[in-house]
Design goal:
The complex is a heterodimer of chains A (about 325) and B (about 260). Chain A is mainly alpha-helical and about 325 residues long. In chain A, about 70% of the residues lie in helices and about 0% in strands. Chain A has one domain. The two termini of chain A are about 25 Å apart. Among the domains of chain B are: about 70 residues, P-loop containing nucleotide triphosphate hydrolases (Rossmann fold, 3-Layer(aba) Sandwich); about 80 residues, 3-Layer(aba) Sandwich (Rossmann fold). In chain B, strands 6-7-8-3-9-10 form a six-stranded mixed beta sheet, sandwiched between helices. Chain B starts with a strand and ends with a helix. The chains are: A mainly alpha (about 325), B alpha/beta (about 260). Chains A and B meet through helix 7, helix 8 and helix 9 of A and helix 2, helix 3, helix 4, helix 5 and helix 6 of B.
């Protein structure tokens, strides 16, 4: 994988661009101007973007429940930057990712020594600690009242040329395009990473850290890099939601969100870069479709989830792959 | 090449390795032997920096490498294998060997991800070297097999292959013949000579006395953490302290 795939990245990227264009044109058309559908799709795209980060920490063999905490950090960085510091949203968004990544690096360095359930527990605590920190500094974060009425993203212009026009009040399409772009770019980077040598190193860390270090691989460095990338995704995603909802509360991202980000990875399949996206797509659309059932919605949804895990313990995509490898086997025989 | 002096490791009240010193010059096949629990493997871990010694130093090619950490030791040219079958479960043999080349890659992290010319060059070099290792280990036919599906004997071989892929100057083999049948052991002995002839100096920790006696040029005997003898296989077989340490088993095991 590390060696062969590097020559053949052009074709998949071309295919990806086609799919992306199709998505950007088809979804608004199919939604027929329904704000509800666009909202769901936008949220799904942004949520899968954040979940890519969780997937990456799975790739190095760590169960990461801190993602919501770092998303909250990103959300506050965006909110404070645009509301208090007067920065443009387009600066604030990458800045949110950077701040989350740096904090993630500082916390990750000592914490990533832990494995298995211990790492999961400490990351769960990190999410909770982020919420409590937001509550404890009302001077900056306005505490439980939250930061509300955040300005919508303004225009992005370079050398007087307007690249992205200012977002209008009530318009849903701009956020749909922004979330979609984030998701595509996020997926592209993850895929490049996974198929590169770095991806192979990450997989080696998941399988045997001692062996990897005996080969001269700086295990601590690579784990921190993976965690920082994950936190960057969380920060940018959190910043996006702050702009989308125009508000941030300490409860905007909580432990339950961390769990959801993780579940999307599981449902889609941990072996596949696109797993979190498939997981979020399947879970969020099925939840919305079950809307008909009113108060039974959650019960049926949970039942389906249990069935899903029982029947497809390695995620939905593993079933697809099993099918295709069976077909291959049949052809060869 | 390797100078170990006064190496000591204390775990709580137990002195696992006590004041062991020895020198090794390039191309010598050295074996460390001793009864179970004598401290051989601990000695290995101290050299490979998987453990930090309580006292003593390890010098390699003139520089002090005591306790600098496993990956740094590997970067300087000392690579170890593991006593248990230690491998990357889901990786093919070839992918695992390619990973051994990681430390010699010159591209940056971002360069690897975005496929700069430098990283493509790295990949070509890794691929060529992997082919050579596969050939040397006689494992070409297994290149695409997933490690988890290999039999025990081949896993031992894979362990050595992956270590070789990291281009060591000094190769620490922790019980390379453990659990192998006599035919596989014989092949293993030939392999170790082949590795030495390729310019890599092997050190073994081993229990299989027949193999040790036939492959080693020098033997170091450890008992209760201390060095009790050092010499050629013939000298070791005559050494009284060694016979005493192995008392009761000397007939079959040392081959006296």
């Amino acid at each position: 994988m590390a060696g062969g795939s590097s020559h053949s990245i052009a074709k998949p990227i071309a295919l990806g661009v086609l799919i992306a264009l199709g998505y950007f044109i088809a979804v608004p058309l199919l939604s027929g101007g329904s704000g509800y559908v666009l909202n769901v799709v936008t949220t799904m795209a942004a949520v899968s973007f954040i979940s890519f980060g969780v997937w990456l920490t799975f790739a190095i063999g760590r169960i990461n429940l801190a993602q919501a905490g770092f998303a909250l950090i990103g959300a506050y960085v965006t909110a404070i930057s645009v509301a208090h510091l007067g920065l443009s949203f387009w600066v604030a968004l990458p800045l949110s990712g950077l701040v989350a990544a740096i904090i993630g690096g500082l916390i990750g360095w000592p914490v990533l020594r832990l494995k298995g359930v211990y790492f999961a527990m400490i990351t769960l605590c990190i999410t909770e600690a982020c919420r409590l920190t937001a509550l404890s500094f009302p001077g900056i974060t306005r505490g439980a009242q939250g930061m509300v009425d955040l300005p919508l993203p303004g225009d992005l212009s370079l050398f007087g040329l307007v690249i992205i026009p200012a977002f209008e009040k009530g318009a849903r399409l701009p956020f749909f395009y922004l979330a979609g772009t984030l998701m595509m770019l996020g997926l592209l980077f993850m895929w490049l990473l996974d198929t590169s040598r770095v991806g192979a190193v990450f997989r080696s860390l998941r399988q045997n850290e001692d062996l990897a270090s005996s080969l001269g691989i700086n295990v601590a460095k690579y784990r921190v890099v993976a965690f920082m990338v994950a936190c960057f995704y969380a920060g940018v995603g959190g910043g996006f939601f702050a702009a989308l909802q125009q508000n941030v509360y300490p409860t905007s991202f909580q432990v339950i969100d961390s769990v959801y980000f993780m579940v999307y990875c599981f449902v889609g399949g941990l072996e596949f870069v696109i797993g979190p996206l498939i997981g979020a797509l399947v879970m969020m659309t099925s939840f919305e479709l079950l809307h008909e059932f009113q108060r039974y919605q959650t019960v049926i949804y949970s039942g389906l989830m249990i069935l899903c895990i029982l029947l497809m313990p390695n995620g939905i995509l593993s079933v697809v792959r099993r099918r295709s490898s069976k077909a291959k086997g049949a052809n060869n025989a | 090449m390797l100078e170990v002096s006064g190496l000591t490791k204390v775990f709580g009240g137990l002195t696992a390795v006590n004041n062991i010193s020895f020198n090794l010059s390039k191309g010598d096949i050295l074996s460390i032997i001793g009864p179970n629990g004598a401290g051989k493997s601990t000695c290995f871990k101290l050299i490979a920096s998987f453990l930090t010694p309580t006292a003593g130093t390890v010098r390699f090619n003139g520089t002090d490498i005591t306790g600098i950490g496993p990956s740094n030791v590997a970067l300087r040219g000392i690579v170890r294998t593991f006593q248990e079958n230690t491998f990357f479960q889901d990786m093919s043999v070839r992918d695992a060997i390619l990973l051994g080349h990681q430390k010699d890659c010159k591209a940056s992290l971002a360069g690897m991800i975005f496929r700069t010319p430098r990283s493509r060059q790295d990949n070509r070099e890794a691929s060529d070297y992997a082919d050579r290792v596969l050939e040397m280990m006689d494992m070409q036919h297994l290149a695409d097999t997933v490690a988890g599906a290999l039999p025990h004997g081949m896993l031992r071989r894979l362990g050595i292959a992956v270590a070789l892929a990291a281009k060591p100057q000094l190769l620490l083999l922790d019980e390379p013949f453990a659990g192998l049948n006599s035919d596989e052991t014989k092949k293993g002995v030939d392999l170790i000579r082949k590795i030495r002839d390729a310019g890599i100096t092997p050190i073994l920790v081993e229990h299989d006395m027949t193999a040790v006696m036939s492959v080693s040029e020098r033997i170091l005997v450890v008992n209760f953490g201390s060095k009790i003898a050092e010499g050629t296989p013939a000298e070791i077989q005559r050494n009284e302290k060694v016979i005493e340490a192995y008392l009761g088993a000397e007939d079959e095991e040392i081959g006296l």
